[in-house]
UniProtKB/TrEMBL annotation:
SUPFAM superfamilies from the UniProt entry: PheT/TilS domain
Full protein name: Cytoplasmic protein
Domain of life where this protein originates: Bacteria
Annotated organism of origin: Streptomyces himalayensis subsp. aureolus
Length: 84
């Protein structure tokens, strides 16, 4: 269970990862049978490292494109805490 104020990533079923992104949930692991996958990229210093985060997201999208019907990138922040 997350502590009050703790950063988590969650879906409608429950918590996917907590304590930032150092431990992912077993139920959301990527396998050859996966059809919906989320890759989480993050930085503590978006104003300083935001360009690096965008480069990494663009590169990941390029690597996934040949294997995916569709890809999407969502940028979260305190002002935008949920994907649209």
């Amino acid at each position: 269970n997350p502590k009050p104020g703790e950063i988590i990533y969650a879906d409608t079923t429950g918590v996917l990862t907590r304590h930032w992104n150092h431990r992912d949930a077993h139920r959301t692991r990527v396998t050859e049978d996966s059809t919906h996958v989320a890759f989480i990229l993050e930085t503590l210093h978006a104003t300083r490292d935001g360009d690096l985060l965008k480069v990494a997201a663009d590169e990941l999208q390029g690597l996934l494109a040949p294997h995916a019907e569709q890809t999407a990138v969502h940028y979260l922040s305190p002002a935008q805490p949920q994907a649209a």
